[in-house]
Automatic annotation (TrEMBL):
<dbReference type="InterPro" id="IPR006746">
    <property type="entry name" value="26S_Psome_Rpn12"/>
</dbReference>
<feature type="domain" description="PCI">
    <location>
        <begin position="79"/>
        <end position="251"/>
    </location>
</feature>
<dbReference type="InterPro" id="IPR033464">
    <property type="entry name" value="CSN8_PSD8_EIF3K"/>
</dbReference>
<dbReference type="GO" id="GO:0008541">
    <property type="term" value="C:proteasome regulatory particle, lid subcomplex"/>
</dbReference>
<dbReference type="Pfam" id="PF10075">
    <property type="entry name" value="CSN8_PSD8_EIF3K"/>
</dbReference>
<keyword id="KW-0647">Proteasome</keyword>
<dbReference type="GO" id="GO:0005829">
    <property type="term" value="C:cytosol"/>
</dbReference>
<dbReference type="GO" id="GO:0043161">
    <property type="term" value="P:proteasome-mediated ubiquitin-dependent protein catabolic process"/>
</dbReference>
<comment type="similarity">
    <text>Belongs to the proteasome subunit S14 family.</text>
</comment>
<dbReference type="InterPro" id="IPR000717">
    <property type="entry name" value="PCI_dom"/>
</dbReference>
<dbReference type="GO" id="GO:0005634">
    <property type="term" value="C:nucleus"/>
</dbReference>
<protein>
    <recommendedName>
        <fullName>PCI domain-containing protein</fullName>
    </recommendedName>
</protein>
Length: 267
């Protein structure tokens, strides 16, 4: 075997062992070193030069970037996720026909769709969907992301909040939690405008918490201005604390009259 390929393979095994141990610090260091080593393979994108070990080099590079994407989900780094995903994508699109299928491809494509949904990049979400094959669209990982987007657009927030109960892959929890927080914040904002107070039971049901403890923790972290009193969540206090700006009616009238005089002169 080529010495460079042997070095990358050995380093990759050390990286996977660190991931198994949960040693994130070692994982990030080893991953950076692996990316540097991959630059020595001219068979990789964007050069795609033929070599005796091209298929082996392309396959191990794809595996490395797949592990990089999953590591970014584990540590919650969305920017690094995006960078590594775009480095990985050519291995699915440009050389996919030359390599054996990756068992993680659809799962990672689904993770990227969830990322775009969490970041409210709906146009890019649908662009990525257009690029997928009919077979990919039928995969549970892709369908789960599509159903979430439909629920989100329809305002069916209860379906979004309950989506965590049937995720096709454990790594989806990170993005689903972020999406659930966005949805809960939206519901909380609407509730403040619609109600003066809610019972703890009603508030739990509305925000889809399974216990009063979860609700109280959410209020403590996200809405400390809400008041808990006699088994009720008082929202009126939040309304009263919101600044209310007066409309400068006299100033607006004077400006309107001034504009009218200027128009009369022009005409």
């Amino acid at each position: 075997m080529d010495p460079k390929l042997t070095e990358v393979s050995q380093q990759f095994e050390r990286f996977k062992a660190a991931c198994t141990r949960g040693d994130i610090h070692s994982c990030t260091i080893l991953l950076s070193q692996l990316k540097v080593l991959l630059t020595g393979f001219r068979s990789l994108p964007p050069l795609f030069e033929d070599s005796p070990n091209a298929i082996h080099e392309l396959t191990i590079a794809r595996d490395i970037y797949e592990h990089a994407v999953l590591l970014n989900v584990k540590i919650g780094d969305q920017d690094a996720f995006e960078r590594d995903f775009f480095q990985l994508k050519p291995y699915y699109t440009d050389v996919g026909g030359r390599l054996p299928p990756s068992p993680q491809e659809h799962m990672i494509l689904g993770l990227n769709l969830l990322r775009l949904l969490v970041q409210n990049r709906i146009g890019e979400f649908h662009t990525e969907l257009e690029l997928l094959s009919p077979i990919a669209l039928e995969n549970p990982c892709i369908k789960h992301a599509v159903e979430l987007e439909q629920s989100f657009m329809e305002g069916a927030y209860n379906r979004v909040l309950s989506a965590k109960q049937n995720v096709p892959y454990q790594g989806y929890d990170y993005f689903i939690d972020l999406l659930a927080k966005t949805v809960r914040d939206e519901i909380a904002g609407c509730s403040e405008k619609a109600y003066d107070y809610l019972s703890l039971t009603d508030a739990c049901q509305m925000l889809l918490f399974s216990s009063d403890h979860e609700l109280l923790q959410y209020i403590k972290e996200e809405h400390p201005e809400w008041e808990i009193k006699n088994g009720q969540v008082i929202l009126q206090k939040a309304k009263e604390s919101a600044p209310c700006k007066e409309i400068p009616s006299l100033q607006l009238i004077n400006q309107t009259l001034s504009y009218a005089r200027e128009l009369e002169r022009i005409v």
